[in-house]
Fold:
Amino acid sequence: MPYTDLQKQVYDNKIKRGFNVTDIGKEIILMTEELGELCDAKLSNDKGAIIDAIGDIMVYCLSMSSLFKWDAHDIIEEVTFSGDYLTHIGREIGMLAKTFKKSNQQSVDKIDRRAEFKSHLGKLLGYCKAAFFAEGSNELAILKGIVENNSVRSHQGKIK
Structure:
């Protein structure tokens, strides 16, 4: 279960720093911002930024899994795709947004459409994992680095 410890670290960091642990819509907005960074990195062919953005999206997936009290290891889906993984990652983030829009938009403990959220989040995790593979990157090492870096950042994103 490679994600369990990372997922716990991500959630604990959110609690420690007073970050959002109830609003799924806010998490989707932040995840969408990372998708924009991934698109920018792809357009400029910046491999380091591509890998960082994929990792950031996956960290938001781990965070969202924690908010729903799901183990990311249990919900990740094995995916196959042809073409560019970016299209698939973008689609699943869009589907998460669409699911939120159609939901009752309550806090995570009261939100409906949980099965749809779980399905799209599981696919998104799978596409991120596949994207790391496509980029020739060590997914767990990248994720560990991002999680450790996030634990020492200020609210303005600067390393303390």
About this structure: The helical segments are 4-17, 24-43, 47-68, 72-75, 85-102, 114-134, 139-151.
